[in-house]
Automatic annotation (TrEMBL):
Name of the protein described by the UniProt record: Methyltransferase domain-containing protein
Classification via CDD domains: AdoMet_MTases (cd02440)
GO BP: methylation
Pfam families: Methyltransf_25 (PF13649)
Molecular functions (GO terms): methyltransferase activity
Organism field: Penicillium canescens
Keyword set, alphabetical order: Methyltransferase, Transferase
Record's keyword annotation contains Methyltransferase: yes
Domain of life: Eukaryota
Domain Methyltransferase: 50-148
Methyltransferase listed as a keyword: yes
Amino acid sequence: MTDIPSGTCNVVLGSRITEDSETYAAAASFSPHFADTLIDSIDFKSTDHILDIGCGNGIFTSRFAPQVGYVLEVDSSPSMIDAAKTRNYGSTSTDFRAVNCRLPEDDQEIMNSNWDEVASNAAFHWILRDPSTRISTLKAIFRSMKPGRVFFSEMCGHGNAPEKFTAFKFGLVNQ
Ligand SMILES: C[S@@+](CC[C@H](N)C(=O)[O-])C[C@H]1O[C@@H](n2cnc3c(N)ncnc32)[C@H](O)[C@@H]1O
């Protein structure tokens, strides 16, 4: 019998849940609500332009979108983007794109230096998984925003926090 390295099953199962919108909705509908308290702490303006990275099926986005002027929702999964398009964001203008955010510096629409906030829920533990692109990804997100604005992100599901804090500390020390 082939040995399965420790952690492999969780990663495979996790990928399937997070990339398919119907599986995600059935198995992890609680996940978009981890960030409710965080969203309530942000002072949104009706003119704000927000980039939501790893937007999934749009439930997290729909919690703050009605308070702002524009949201670009990006996700590597076309299935998630299709589901996000069906959501109600009030009168707020929205765009959607299926894009891998591990190399945001290559994407001119993301790198417009004009975001008031960059948002992300339950996605950066996937996006920062590859150590070779961690620092460049974090630096690119920093450069994509207006100076002094806010990047708010949640990904503290069981076991995610240590990886997140390691990646952010590494990015800050090496910026
Ligand atoms: C757990 S879901 C969270 C979705 C949504 N933010 C929410 O709160 O419900 C993680 C999302 O990250 C996306 N994702 C994973 N790796 C990605 C990458 N490299 N670039 C963009 N999106 C990615 C997945 O497709 C999935 O939709």
